[in-house]
Amino acid sequence: MTVNTFFSADLLLAYTAYLVGTASPGPSNLAIMSIAATHGRKAALVFALGVISGSMFWATMATLGVSAALIAWSQFIIAVKISGGLYLLWLAFKAGRTALSNIDASSLKAERMQTWTSFYARGALLHLTNPKAILVWVSIVALSSNVSGSVHGAVVPGCASLDA
């Protein structure tokens, strides 16, 4: 495999679509910033690891051909959109309730005592129910469908390396 195969036009188009999809702010970016502001950098990093895990799940599913099934069974995407919207409404309700209540420092400290597992799970759940993540990965796989088989396997690792 030569260097030129890694820089084919189809592969560069897929990488560009990934950069545009991840650079545009979404609920995951806002949640990471919120957790960093309220719980600190380590909690935000653990949350971000959950988000990345959710993204890699959708990347794997799209690469394995589940994107064709998602397109054929569009009700699943609608269900993901609804569950993602309900999750975001639940987060907004919690944020609004906290903002409207008189909370002292001791109760905030008790709330901060969440486990790393809960931050990771929240990040993964947020990204697994994010329809934008599903559609970005489906479009990336669709754009890279003309890439030869040996290079097609480089799409997901290449996109993951762009995050680093």
TL;DR?
The chain is an all-alpha fold and 164 residues long.
Looking at this protein, list some descriptive labels.
164 residues; mainly alpha; 0% strand; globular
What share of the residues does DSSP label as strand, in percent? under 5%
Radius of gyration: 18 Å
Low-confidence stretches: none
Question: Could you report the average pLDDT, rounded to the nearest whole number?
Answer: 76
Could you give the count of β-strands? 0
Silhouette = globular
Order of helices and strands: HHHHHHHHHHH
Q: Percentage of helical residues?
A: over 70%
| Sheet of most strands | none
Helix/strand/pairing category: mainly alpha
Number of domains: 1
Give the assembly state of these chains.
Answer: single chain
SS element count, helices: 11
Structure description:
This protein has one domain (about 25-164). It has helices at about 5, 10-25, 25-40, 40-65, 65-70, 75-100, 105-110, 115-130, 130-145, 150, 155-164. The relative contact order is 0.22. The two termini are about 25 Å apart. It is built from 11 helices and no strands. It is globular. With about 160 residues, the protein is mostly helical.
List the helices and strands and how they pair.
Elements: H1 3-6, H2 9-23, H3 27-39, H4 41-63, H5 66-72, H6 74-100, H7 105-112, H8 116-128, H9 131-143, H10 149-152, H11 155-163
Helix pairs in contact: 2-9, 2-11, 3-4, 4-8, 4-9, 5-6
